[in-house]
Design a protein that fits this description.
9 strands; alpha+beta; Arc Repressor Mutant, subunit A; 240 residues; 7-stranded mixed beta sheet; 2 domains
Length: 240
Amino acid sequence: MDLDPNPDSPAPRPGSTLIGTLRERSLHAHLKRLYTLPGDCVEEKVGGYWVDIRRGDDVIEIQTGSFGSMKRKLDKLLSELSVRIVHPVAVEKWITKIGADGETFLSRRKSPKRGSLYDLFDELVSFPQLVLHPRFSVEVVLVKEEEMRCEDGKGSWRRKGTSIKDHILLEVAGRTVFQGKRDFLQVLPTGWAGPSTNRELAKALKQPYFRVARMTYCLARMELLQTAGKRGNSLLYALA
């Protein structure tokens, strides 16, 4: 199915409306606009559920948050339609702080955190077997974004009360589509066949151990990996 985004709907330019015009779910709205083509139905109810975009027998769901809450909805939609989840991952993030009045600019800095394609497995771990469905696909969109924070005292104690008000799309840096389970082989080291432990794979991929553990969990349930004994107390994984 052709679900390519609309090349004529560019993301907004950075810094255009940062102060005084905070919008709820801006990243979601911008991506929805980017993926909408002429003739698409936007925010349509299908099978009792609202979907972001419907294009004939295809549905596009822009999912900026957790996948966990989508399982029942996806099961229903996939019984009749093809569904693609479009999931943004921030490879570059700027953090802008404003005052409690919602308007006064306080600061802007670049976050040291950089996401990657492998962040997908933090969410896909909720239902990795769904990748085996012939009408299901996932697209990871690598983005540069602006995170708007407000010093209103209502946010997490970890951020000392600062609230996250919005995420604004600055630029699309890349896209990777996983149309079927074999497309996921590209996340493994080039030429790798195993056996390796999660820790060894994490070192080879330069990814955190916990994320690689989620990756191998998902790939095993997609029937791409199999366990091949142990090395010490650690499971060994090899291509199935």
